[in-house]
Amino acid sequence: MTSHAQPYDFPIDVAADDIDFMGHVNNASYLKWVQAAVISHWQALAPVEAVAQHLWVALKHEITYRRPAFLDDDVVATVLLERVQGARAFYETVITRGSEVLAEVKSSWCCVDAETLRPARLARDVIDRFFVKPAEA
């Protein structure tokens, strides 16, 4: 029986300082949005104790831009935790405006202990909160 990632929607406020000289959202803003969305996802689904004991550090982002975003667009970042391997987590974040995909982001993160700042593995019960197991027949 395979479990599936639980999607997490993070609404994005496109602000005036996100807009570049070409009149659309600057590429750097997408990174800011992904970071905020992944951290919000963690804080929303992980137990309070785990949130207090762990921090996340981005290791890599790979962004595919599909369409530009503009000031006052209704934008949503949908976060999926693909898998956890040791202290690393692999995410997919899709940024949309309605049914239009604006960007797709693959990212990897390292979980660190909040006190020592050393890599830390998450307990299985914490990881399981991010996945939905299909109902048994």
From TrEMBL:
SUPFAM superfamilies: Thioesterase/thiol ester dehydrase-isomerase. The keyword Flavoprotein does not apply. One of its GO terms (molecular function) is hydrolase activity. Keywords: Hydrolase. It is an enzyme of class 3 (hydrolase). Its EC number is 3.1.2.-. Gene3D superfamilies: Hotdog Thioesterase. The keyword Nucleotide-binding does not apply. Belongs to the 4-hydroxybenzoyl-CoA thioesterase family. This is Thioesterase family protein.
